[in-house]
């Protein structure tokens, strides 16, 4: 039951991302709140929660936004799983660590999506897109995570510590 709140928050972030976040773009790039949230929880809770959350978030995003089912799901799954694996060796609650993981994770996420587009025979300039979209979104997501990570840590701690409240059986 306690995981239900994380899934509901992901749905809320998807709604916000598709409506409100359209108005806060920089150079045509929007922040990816779902990616930031899933990656942060992967960093905090390890690879298995990363798998569940990224599968859910990626599939919902693919169904709503993308023509190619599975592209966002696979990209988010790979990045969040790697983050969850590497999180065993770092101080998880550090905003700087989250900043670095978000920057590198966003780059890898965009690389996987662009490579998928190449495999599907989309016509675009790979290097230019990586530099324009990938780098700007990496910086943008990293700056956002610098401000919101402590709230994600607090939310995660609250859900984990209040198991009785979140898993009450009626």
UniProtKB/TrEMBL annotation:
Positions of transmembrane segments: 6-27, 63-84, 96-119, 139-159
Pfam families: MreD
Keywords: Cell membrane, Cell shape, Membrane, Transmembrane, Transmembrane helix
Cellular compartment(s): Cell membrane
Membrane topology of the entry: Multi-pass membrane protein
Keyword Transferase: no
Main location: membrane
Keyword Cell membrane applies: yes
Single GO BP term: regulation of cell shape
One GO cellular component term noted in the UniProt record for this chain: plasma membrane
Family: Belongs to the MreD family.
Protein name per UniProt: Uncharacterized protein
UniProt source species: Caldanaerobacter subterraneus subsp. pacificus DSM 12653
């Amino acid at each position: 039951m306690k995981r239900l709140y994380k899934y509901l928050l992901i749905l809320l972030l998807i709604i916000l991302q598709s409506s409100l976040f359209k108005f806060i773009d920089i150079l045509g790039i929007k922040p990816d709140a779902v990616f930031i949230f899933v990656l942060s929880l992967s960093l905090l809770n390890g690879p298995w929660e990363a798998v569940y959350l990224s599968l859910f978030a990626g599939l919902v995003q693919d169904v709503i936004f993308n023509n190619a089912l599975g592209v966002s799901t696979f990209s988010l799954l790979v990045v969040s799983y790697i983050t969850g694996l590497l999180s065993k060796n770092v101080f998880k609650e550090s905003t700087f660590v989250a900043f670095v993981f978000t920057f590198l994770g966003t780059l890898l996420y965009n690389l996987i999506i662009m490579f998928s587009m190449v495999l599907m025979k989309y016509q675009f300039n790979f290097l230019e897109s990586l530099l324009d979209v990938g780098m700007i979104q990496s910086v943008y997501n990293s700056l956002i995570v610098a401000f919101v990570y402590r709230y994600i840590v607090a939310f995660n701690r609250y859900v984990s510590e209040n198991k009785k409240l979140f898993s009450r059986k009626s």
